[in-house]
Design brief:
Elements lengths: L7 H50 L5 E2 L8 E4 L6 E6 L14 E7 L3 E4 L5 E2 L7 E8 L8 E10 L3 E9 L6 E6 L4 E7 L5 E6 L5 E3 L15 E6 L4 E8 L8 E4 L2 E3 L3
Parallel strand pairs: 2-9, 12-17
Antiparallel strand pairs: 1-3, 3-7, 4-6, 4-8, 5-7, 8-9, 10-11, 10-16, 11-15, 12-14, 13-15
């Protein structure tokens, strides 16, 4: 009779595989559990960080009297002396909200203008509401109809952009030049631009005699030290003065309705 032989080594391998499978199952379950716990910790960490960021951002405030986030547009008249732009460390709509950190920013200006910033792009934090000024100065070739755009890009602690565009629609003040003609006379040339009204000219008595043949200066005298005439807009006036001294008068230019000819 033939005996049936049982392969014991095969049966042993089967048992080992069963034990190995259970081992890997427990390891898998353990990894899943660790992943769940780690995910919860990570989610809580992210939530805490988000809350901290939100708390910090709630202390971030910067606004301006003229610049806006969506941009702004203005027509300007008296612009020759420049435009002052104020930055605030608080919210205009709720002045109780004051910045809690230093603020860093850069300034960009296009057109024929330049800017000056005494604070060099830093707004120091303060417990009080404060402001600081950026000054726009027009170039010598700026004229009616030109525009300039200024953009303030906040870089820290958060990002924000404020900007505005200004258009020169008129020159609200007269401009003038004073020139010593080196022939014993001084010539005052006035361009009234868009201004109409009284213009006052002053000088030191004993230095100049106004040309009384000019109808705009007919009632002026050296002894009075000043003369006033009514000017029309968009008109050029040339007023001549005879020198009573040998010293030269410095050539200069300026803006305004009151002009001083003292050398």
């Amino acid at each position: 009779m033939m005996k049936r032989e049982i392969n014991t080594s095969r049966t042993g391998n089967h048992k080992k595989r069963n034990r190995s499978g259970k081992k890997w199952l427990w390891l898998f379950l353990l990894l899943v559990l660790v992943g769940i716990l780690a995910g919860g910790v990570l989610a809580r960490y992210r939530s805490d960080n988000q809350k901290q960021e939100e708390m910090k951002s709630s202390d971030f405030h910067i606004t301006s009297d003229l610049l806006e986030e969506e941009g702004a547009f203005y027509d300007v008249t008296d612009w020759r002396s420049g435009i002052d732009i104020l930055l605030y460390n608080y919210e205009k709509e709720n002045v109780a909200l004051i910045a809690g950190d230093d603020i860093s920013y850069t300034v960009k200006v296009d057109g024929k203008w330049v800017y000056s910033d005494p604070n060099k792009g830093v707004f120091k934090k303060s417990k009080d509401r404060t402001s600081q000024t950026i000054h726009l100065t027009p170039g010598t070739d700026v004229k009616k109809g030109d525009t300039v755009t200024i953009t303030v890009n906040v870089t820290a602690p958060y990002k924000k952009t404020l900007s505005a565009t200004f258009k020169v629609v008129s020159e609200g003040s007269p401009s003038y030049t004073v020139k010593d003609q080196s022939d014993g006379t001084v010539l005052l040339t006035i361009l009234t631009n868009d201004y109409s009204g009284n213009i006052t000219v002053k000088w030191q008595t004993g230095q100049l005699d106004p040309d009384s043949t000019n109808q705009d200066m007919a009632n002026w005298s050296d002894a009075s030290g000043q003369g006033i005439f009514k000017a029309e807009d968009n008109t050029t006036y040339q007023l001549l003065f005879f020198k009573n001294i040998t010293d030269n008068f410095t050539e200069r230019s300026g803006m305004g309705t009151e002009i001083n000819l003292t050398k």
